[in-house]
Amino acid sequence: MAGPSRSSPSTSKQKRTKPTGCIEKLLNRQGNCVGFLDILITALAASLASYFLFTHLYRDSSIVVRALTIFFVLISILQPYNSTQLYITRHLADGSSEWEIFVVTDLDHDSKTADGKKWQSLAKRGTLKLAKDQKKAEVKWRDAEDFYLSTNIAAGGRAMELSDLAAFDGRLLTCDDRTGLIFWVENKQAIPWLIVNDGPGNVIKGLKAEWMTVKGEELFVGGLGKEWTTTSGEYVNDHPMWIKKVNAKGAVTHINWKDVFVRVRAAIGIQYPGYMIHEAVQWSDVHGKWFFLPRRASNDTYSEEADETRGTNYMVVGNEELTQFNAVRIDTDGNTRKGYSAFQFIPGTKDSLIVALKSEEKDGKPVASYIKQLQTVHTELLKKSGVKWTDAEERVFQWQIGNLEFACGAKLDQVSWRNWDQNESVALFAGAHALLTDGSGEIIKKLSEGTDIRASHVVDRIEWGSERAKAAVYCKNGKKYQADKILIAVPLAVLQKEHIKFRPPLPERKRDAISKIGTGLIEKVGISVNLKRKKTAFR
């Protein structure tokens, strides 16, 4: 990405294909196909005849106005929906496939130009290549073709914070999450098409439009999908839980999806005041299902600060009626700052593969976007075997996957299938399991005797390496401690996430080793105990 941004993908070409077809097909009639242009010419001739008839015989201009109005309305109604897709598949000699990919960005506050007269979004073009076996995909950006989409229409001093892309009625559309404007993109310009307002449609605020998808001949536009709250989580209204259904003529229907969004978050065990934020929703004609990749979710009350670290790794799939939902854990990279901001199905894969964008924010500002290829179907073995799992069995299976990844500290496709449980055969962890009847507090208390332990002393940085001065530890509470040597005994994840800074930085070989070692979320402490004694704290 050229600069931090949140982006939205679309596998598309930029040239709009003109509508084709005929009026007989539109009306499902039999017989010869009369071109739409023929009907247009005939209707225009009839209108001109009406004009001369009314103006010369009746001299009543109001009748003329009504006649011409009826004519243009009739033309608008008769024009068919353009279902032409905007992508072209290139099949390469090695069996791989390529598509043009186009993304728009949400630059947040940086969308305002330096002169303060316009707002803009960075647009990028590239190529998405999918291997023959469909197991690997890569994107190559053509940075020299970057350009900006701009507008001078704003709300509250902000605009052009584009969130998603969709091919609808033969045009490439994008939406602004500040103004509620939907633009169509052509010739490097964003042309305003319509504005969708928030909630049930009777408020002056524009919809914070985060996602768009097409089902049939209608465009669905939605927002965050959670209750609108203050930055500290106090309830305000349900407006973001309304979605908009738009037809090709721009007519908008406001639909309350609160029950839908409640069911989606319940699929992963979240109930209010917990929440789930949506920026990536798609309908699949192939599967006849709805797909949700939540951006963030938590069982805790919404907090603007904490929300940045609540990214999800879930895909929630719902039936067409939006009454039943199943959740699947995907792409568990362990970075909870990343959340899904958009995705599209890859053409030619029967909607079994998607290209998705994950975005990361810090202090309310976009930091980076990551593009990923993900499988939408993980049950290929079940399909081939003909075995049918119940919902309960599926949940147990997903729990086991999560439990293993939790313990191993990596996705299962990165874990050795031979050696993932090697600790079971090592003497250090061999033997029967035992529980402390009164908990482990007594052991910690005993081990800490005679040791100077300082609570509420979070380490901020360590200065070391100077031959003349002692090494120093600086705490966030302002305290400083010096010593000849410093022994660091912290979880590896603390070092990987750079919660402790080093001055000068650690040697490159150490930093490289720290970043590459896998680490689980379980801290293990080995204690040698003689269990043959009659009196013991273990059972």
From TrEMBL:
Residues recorded as binding Ca(2+), renumbered to this chain, are: S163, D164, E210, E279, S341
Q: Where is the chain membrane-spanning?
A: 34-54, 63-81
Q: Keyword annotations for this protein?
A: Calcium, Hydrolase, Membrane, Metal-binding, Transmembrane, Transmembrane helix
Presence of keyword Transmembrane: yes
For biological process, the GO terms are: proteoglycan biosynthetic process
Domain (Amine oxidase) ranges: 420-528
- GO MF, one example: oxidoreductase activity
Q: Which InterPro entries match?
A: Amino_oxidase (IPR002937), Apyrase (IPR009283), Apyrase_sf (IPR036258), FAD/NAD-bd_sf (IPR036188)
The domain of life is: Eukaryota
Q: Which cofactor does it need?
A: Ca(2+)
Q: Name one Pfam family in it.
A: Amino_oxidase
Family, similarity comment? Belongs to the apyrase family.
Protein name, UniProt field: Amine oxidase domain-containing protein
Q: What is the organism of origin for this protein?
A: Diploscapter pachys
